[in-house]
Amino acid sequence: MNETPAAPAAVKTAEKPAEGKKTTFYCSFCSKSQHEVKGLAAKPTETMFICNECLELGMDTLREEKLLPRGLPTVLPAVAALLDEQMRELRSEMHAKFALLLEEALSAYRNKVLAQLQRDEAALAGPTGMKLPPGVDTDTSG
Where are the domains of the chain? Predict the structure, then answer.
């Protein structure tokens, strides 16, 4: 049987974050932080958390005591696979949206640069509106 996690002296649920930093959450059973475990599940109130290690330990205990049906744990990998697929789809959508935003930004920048070049060209043509042919040098000092 797996070893039971040591009961913490004081259960940590969350640290108050420093300004500009994110909150760190802890397992309510073993006090490991979200960074020390693979996953941390929360109750809807988000005041109690359980890490994947404590959850697995609890499920092993329930299986050994024959309190957990054999079929239920086989559903968990399927749920995890479904969640992984949804995350891949979300990432793919995010990449597509980012690519579209990047393309729009580059197009807007290109249009801005072209407009500035046209204004510069008009300013160089002078009040007569005449343009110099390409390759004509206006330097007369030499």
Answer: 1-68, 74-127
